[in-house]
Amino acid sequence: MWGMTGEDCRDGLSGESADATAPRTAAFFDLDKTIIATSSAFAFGKEFLNNGLISRQEAVEIYMSKASYMLSGHSSEQMDSTRDYLSQLVAGWSVDDINRITTETMRSVVTPAIYAEARELIEYHKRHGRDIIIISASADILVDPIARELGVDMIVATEIEIVDGKLTGNITRFLKGDAKAEAVAEFADTHGYDLELCYAYSDSATDIPMLEMVGHAVAVNPDRTLRKHAQDNEWEIRIFKHPVPLIQMPNAREFGIGAGVLAGVTALAAAGVWVAQRIKKDSNNT
């Protein structure tokens, strides 16, 4: 199974449209570190703090988790831990408040983090008549505004129960690993996609089940495990660089804490990442 070739890309950029008689196809995109150079689950942390939805301590914890994710990614177990932490954190939040905050701050928080290469690929697939589906482990309430910014109408994401206009914190569907593959199969069944002609893009080894569902699997900025799997299976590997992913730690003024304390928080986050990487490396050598 192969990804899009350079010749295919040039054809797409020339404006060639899809054959109306061709089988219906789709391009499935993971979101975090594939379309955007950040984590959608953590991206709005500062804005939630400014609007009183989280405390300073919770904001620091979010930034530490984001730093860990951006530097070394998250394993399946870490994704589960993040899911549990965030689901408890958002319990009781007003859906209207979340929608207002994400809409008002989208252009300053997330838009600058969208990879130019991802935008180009989305437009390429649209020109070739493929449906675009964002498929993410992040909560749908956070994925929706990003999809609108990209002009994407179809998403499938983690779902959180809503009662009386507020999040309960109960996860009703968690889109990770095999669940993403199941979602792709559901889309194919509902829309009549020929999966052998479809594309899928992701950065994480946790998405290998989804990537294996399609005929054109592409590893984008892959973690080490996905890179090896992609090489072994002759999948295309792409490196997105614009924008360059940056870890933006909060400044002391934003949290109302001393610069020395903030420096300690930053160092602790970096040390935590180093320890996790060392443990992983040692376990791989045993």
Spell out the key features of this protein:
alpha/beta, globular, Rossmann fold, 13 helices, disordered N terminus, 286 residues, seven-stranded mixed beta sheet
Your description of this structure?
This protein is an alpha/beta fold and 286 residues long. It has a single domain (26-238), classed as 3-Layer(aba) Sandwich (Rossmann fold). The chain has 13 helices and seven strands. A hairpin with a 2-residue loop joins β3 and β4. The longest helix has 27 residues, at 259-285. The two termini are 33 Å apart. Keywords: Hydrolase, Magnesium, Membrane, Metal-binding, Transmembrane, Transmembrane helix. GO terms for molecular function: hydrolase activity; metal ion binding. The chain crosses the membrane at residues 255-276. This is HAD hydrolase, family IB.
Can you describe this structure in just a few lines?
The protein is an alpha/beta fold and 286 residues long.
Please give the structural blueprint.
Elements: H1 6-13, E1 26-29, H2 40-43, H3 45-50, H4 56-72, H5 76-90, H6 95-109, H7 116-127, E2 131-139, H8 140-150, E3 154-163, E4 166-173, H9 178-191, E5 199-202, H10 208-211, E6 216-220, H11 224-232, E7 236-238, H12 252-255, H13 259-285
Parallel strand pairs: 1-2, 1-5, 2-3, 5-6, 6-7
Antiparallel strand pairs: 3-4
Helix pairs in contact: 4-13, 6-8
* CATH architecture descriptor name: 3-Layer(aba) Sandwich
Low-confidence sequence ranges: 1-16, 244-284
Secondary structure: number of strands: 7
Strand line-up of the largest beta sheet: 4-3-2-1-5-6-7
User: How many structural units, i.e. domains?
Assistant: 1
Strand-pairing-aware structural class: alpha/beta
Q: What is the level 1 CATH name?
A: Alpha Beta
CATH superfamily: HAD superfamily/HAD-like
For the termini, the CA-CA separation is: 33 Å
Helix content: 40-55%
Task: Report Rg.
Answer: 19 Å
Organism: Corynebacterium lipophiloflavum (strain ATCC 700352 / DSM 44291 / CCUG 37336 / JCM 10383 / DMMZ 1944)
Transmembrane segments: 255-276
GO molecular function: hydrolase activity; metal ion binding
Family: Belongs to the HAD-like hydrolase superfamily. SerB family.
